[in-house]
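User: Hi! I'm working on a homework problem where we have to compare a predicted structure to a textbook description. Could you give me the structure for the chain below?
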Amino acid sequence: MNTSVQLQDPALDELDDGPSVSLVDLLTWVGESKRFIGGIALATGVVAAGISLLLPNVYTARTTMVPPNSQQQSGSAAALAALGNLGGLAGGLGAKTPDELYVNLLRSDTVLRALDTQFKLKDRYEAKTYEELKSKVAKYIRQSAEKKSGIITVEVDDEDPQFAADLANAHSVEITRLLSRLAMSEAQQRRVFFESQLKDTKENLIKAEQALRQVQEKSGMVVLDKQAEAIIEAVAQLKTRIAEREIRLKVLRTATTAENPDVRMLMSELAALRAELARMESSTVAQGQGGEGGIDIPIGRLPSAAVDYVRAMREVKFQETMLTSMLKQFEVARLDEAKDAPALQQVDVALPPDRKSKPKRAVIAVGATLFAFFLASIWTIWRRYSALARANDPERAQALDGLRRAWRLRG
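Assistant: Happy to help. Predicted structure tokens:
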């Protein structure tokens, strides 16, 4: 036999939710105390307006800048963007887009320290340390970028309108200096690298020329036939192509990883060229390049007296070709170093504002009045509801009295 037992708390049956109050009752209570509520709200509004009058006027100066477009960006700008994406630039800056990168650079320690030195920001914002300045400066300086247009905006709040304008315009100057230093460092590294390669190539050419002269003096051979010259030219050109790609690979690896498509393509080209050079030097040498009916001549079939001469002449030709290539690369690096770095173009120059932006005294007064009206209404409704509850239920009245005594500051 199944029996069901239902547990019921007797207190739940006697539970009283209190007196029933409708919306009309609430509005009636508020209306009956309208003078009290209105007086509280009016007095609060007057006090808030008076306090707002004591607050100093704050002016906002604004300047806008646009980043260089894709046609103006050079290899230095591309390397800068790559560093920003890796998150290692300017103390761990991470940016998904170039606009975010420029905004993060505007917020970087380099720019802030330069502005602090120029405008004495720690003294102005009452910051004892630089870390404290970094936390306080966000209240006065704002940098942002519009996603659609890419326009970068810098806003500065200050009680002095001229100071606000000068500080906003100084951001454009400091970000230009920072970008110039970063771009100069990248171009300077390439220039120094090619300068070192050029010096080594000159020394190798001198050594190759001296070795060729020694071979000529030893063998008495001065000029080879056209077939041997073609052999030398073919091998020299192939070695030059290998050397050029090796240098390009070294330069490319300074800014990218091994998984970059350009790096992988250069590595595959180098492997193919080295295999071809090994084949030519080990067994045969191709006469000419690109012409049909070329003749492959084994090195072993060349006259024994001419073998040393061929090798010496080939080294000279190779070093001469390398010298020409290094000179071109060195001149390109020098031009890049002399070029102006990609800079943010200032569209709107910040001018001293003629109208304050803060405080909004009308908003403060109206907001305080409405807030006081709301609180006074709530207090009035609670007071009338408590009185009605005491009249209908003495036990509830005691509970409300106990609640009031429990939250009283002085017992």
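For your comparison, note the following. The beta strands are 59-66, 141-145, 152-158, 284-286, 296-298, 345-348. The chain has 14 helices and six strands. Good luck with the assignment!
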